[in-house]
Amino acid sequence: FTPLLVDMEKGLNDPAKTSIIQQLEMQAAISDVSIRGKLRRAPDARVHPFVGFDPRRKDAVDIVRGAVRKYGCVGVKMYPPMGFRPLGNAEFPIPEGMTLEGAQSADATLRELYSFCSEEDVPITAHGNPTNFASKAFEEFSSPGNWEKVLEEFPKLHLNIGHFGGSGKGEFADWPRDFAKLGARFDHFYADIGNHRLGQDLEDYIENLKALFADPTTQPMQDRLMFGTDWFMVASLRDFHDFLEDYSKAYKEAFSDTHRGFMGDIALRFLGFNDPNNKNTKRVVKRYEALDAPIPKWLAVSDN
Questions:
Q1: Can you name the residues that pair with 226 across neighbouring β-strands?
Q2: DSSP 3-state assignment of 53?
Q3: How far is CA 79 from the centre of its chain?
Q4: Is residue 22 within a helix (H) or strand (E), and if so which, with residue range?
Q5: Roughly how many angstroms between the first and final C-alpha of the chain, as a whole number?
Q6: Among 142, 18, 16, CA closest to 82
Q7: N or C: which end of the chain has fewer CB within 10 A?
Q8: Buried b / exposed e across 141-158, counting CB within 10 Å, b at 16+?
Q9: pLDDT digits over 96-131, tens only?
């Protein structure tokens, strides 16, 4: 499990009751307990969290460095709809609530993050859907075009777009296709299905995926699409208990050749866990060794 912490404070102007460091300490404790196989209801589960990131927060990249090196986080979660573009904040129009100086600072902080993540093999997952924005002005901040700028400048970055751009319907129907085109250009670009609903919505979505995977310009994305869930499912979906089984079954019926990848192997590749030389993998292996815990079979270990 890779729980994704989110830094929403700047967008919502609602200070959290606990600090980011307190949240990281709690996540690290949960992760350690899971690595030791001591989670009471799920002793076989292993928990490896992502740290939340907002470029407007003071010392944002230092927090990420500490989260990765001290608290065992294996990735970064970004939420542009809270009020910042992935890059280009200093371009007109400057995001609502930012000054030009603040926008320039945000871009510099983002570049510092992408450089660190590229160098240290730290993957990033970002909200990639025109939803859940703090202001209508931020609706398109997660757009494919905005992320294309990032990948062109940082092509080695392991980037996962949550929700894969949405359902492929409505005003932003082109987002999944435009994101899939990025998958044909950048080897480390991924997406997850996040919280797409079941029933007829799932059937419609599978048909959309068939069209994408049949098109040579977007077909490579079939080998980069991952299963995923979302936090509010337990509140909004009465059938959330069936989500894993129903989605797995529907995907297998449509795409049997890549079903295993969709349900886990592609995620291991996104995280770097299939590569013993990946720095993210090496850090996780060291945590298991430090806790005197057996290393899972899904985590690649070097023979050296």
A1: 192
A2: strand
A3: 10
A4: helix 20-35
A5: 28
A6: 142
A7: C
A8: bbbbebbbebbeebeebb
A9: 999 999 999 999 999 999 999 999 999 999 999 888
Token pair, residue 99, equals 């000054």
Residue 233 to residues 230, 258, 263, 303, Cα–Cα distance (Å)? 6, 25, 18, 41
* Residue 124, strand partner residues: 76, 159
DSSP structure string for 80-94: GGGT--SS-TTSSSP
Are 87 and 112 spatial neighbours (Cβ–Cβ below 8 Å)? no
Percent with pLDDT over 70 in the chain: 97
Strand 225-226 versus strand 50-53 pairing type: unpaired
Kind of pairing between the strands at 50-53 and 75-78: parallel
Question: How confident is the model at residue 230, as a pLDDT?
Answer: 83
Q: Which of 227, 245, 244, 176 is nearest to 204 (CA)?
A: 176
Predicted TM-score of the model (pTM): 0.94
Q: Rounded mean pLDDT of the chain?
A: 92
**Beta carbons within 8 Å of 88's beta carbon, 6+ residues apart:** 107, 146, 149
Alpha-carbon distance of 263 to 193, in angstroms, equals 11
Q: How far apart are CA 75 and CA 68, in angstroms?
A: 7
